[in-house]
Amino acid sequence: MRQWYETLSCRLGLMKYFFREKEPPQSIERLVNIQKRSSISIEKFVVPPKGIGGRTAGYSIASTSSHILDTIPLDAFPPRVKMNHSVSRLTENKCDEFLNTTVEYIRLVPVEGNKLPLLVEALSEHADILILNLGVHYGSGNSTRAPRPNQNKLYKEHMGILFEHCGKINQHGKTCMFRDNLPQHFIHKNGSFPFGWSFKREDLVKGQCGPFDENVHSHINWNKTKLAATHNVPLIPGLDVLVDAW
Q1: CA distance 185 to 216
Q2: How would you write the pLDDT of the chain (246 residues) with one tens digit per residue?
Q3: What angle do CA 93, 94, 97 make, to 5 degrees?
Q4: Has this prediction a pTM greater than 0.90?
Q5: How far is Cα 142 from Cα 139, in angstroms, rounded to an integer?
Q6: How far is CA 217 from the centre of its chain?
Q7: Residues whose CB is less than 8 angstroms from the CB of residue 163 and which lie 6 or more positions away in sequence, other chains included
Q8: Would you state the pLDDT for residue 149?
Q9: Most buried residue, 1, 21, 53, 143, by CB count within 10 Å?
Q10: Do 35 and 93 meet the contact criterion of CB atoms below 8 Å apart?
Q11: What is the 3-state secondary structure (H, E, C) of the chain?
Q12: What are phi and psi of 119, to 5 degrees?
């Protein structure tokens, strides 16, 4: 999801801001409200943005709104500059005169099923469009966390809850979509996501990515078209359109 967020922000000509894990963006009121309403915590980025040292909070924001930009702390990354008693971006956005857009990315810890409705409701209060994704962190017996039982059943249960409440949001003038999961291609026990895995840029240079194996994450790579149609939730394809590239 983060790659999609960064691509969209770039296409809109927006400057993206990131925050160090020890200095979460608590000054951004909208994020604080989302966390309070949903009781959801933010997970740190597995891969920090290039140029920022240390661990990074799993949240980023890009906006043309001066009201929102003024709440971003000066120690955000890229660094903010203070000019004429007001906080200004390092680059100008040519869309400011006619487009008021805010794009946010939130990386959440694994969500309990009973908190999913609260999460969707809290997010919808601060956004016109929601793009949600759940998937790999449910694990396939070999995830970044200790394996949990009945992952296939749990994932389908959570997806049913998520799509149901997404559909309810779509009945009230907003748009809630689900982005399908992407093909996974890690070299480890037939391509599964390795337990305790950590990102190393040199692995990409060395070509340490394996071919896609549809059996590895079968618990998340199933057709969600019927579920989407049942609850009137737009589905952004991911697996079918990209699997040939893997």
Answers
A1: 9
A2: 788 888 889 888 888 999 888 766 766 788 888 888 888 888 888 778 888 877 888 899 998 888 888 888 888 888 877 654 444 444 444 444 556 889 999 988 777 888 899 999 999 988 999 999 988 777 644 444 444 557 778 888 999 999 999 999 999 989 999 998 877 655 444 445 555 555 566 665 555 555 566 666 667 778 889 999 999 999 998 877 777 766
A3: 105
A4: no
A5: 6
A6: 19
A7: 178, 224, 227, 228, 230, 231, 233
A8: 56
A9: 143
A10: no
A11: CHHHHHHHHHHCCCCCEEEECCCCCCCCHHHHHHHHHHCCCECCCCCCCCCCCCCEEEEEEEECCHHHHCCCCCCCECCCEEECCEEECCCCCCCCCCCCCEEEEECECCCCHHHHHHHHHHHHCCCCEEEECCCHHHCCCCCCCCCCCCHHHHHHHHHHHHHHHHHHHHCCCCEEEEECCCCCCECCCCCCCCCCCCCCHHHHHCCCECCCCCCCCCCCCCCCHHHHHHHCCCEECCHHHHHHHC
A12: -65, -50
Strand-pair partners of 194: none
Name the nearest CA neighbour of 213 among 237, 235, 186: 186
- Closest to 30 (Cα-Cα) out of 68, 4, 65: 68
> Which of 119, 144, 142, 130 has the alpha carbon at shortest distance from 44?
144
Among 24, 26, 106, 17, residue whose Cα is nearest residue 59: 106
Neighbours of 158 (CB within 10 A): 17
- Quote the tokens at residue 60: 């980023």
Confidence at residue 213, expressed as pLDDT on a 0 to 100 scale: 62
How many residues would you count in the chain?
Answer: 246
Residue 16 CA to residue 48 CA, distance in Å, equals 13
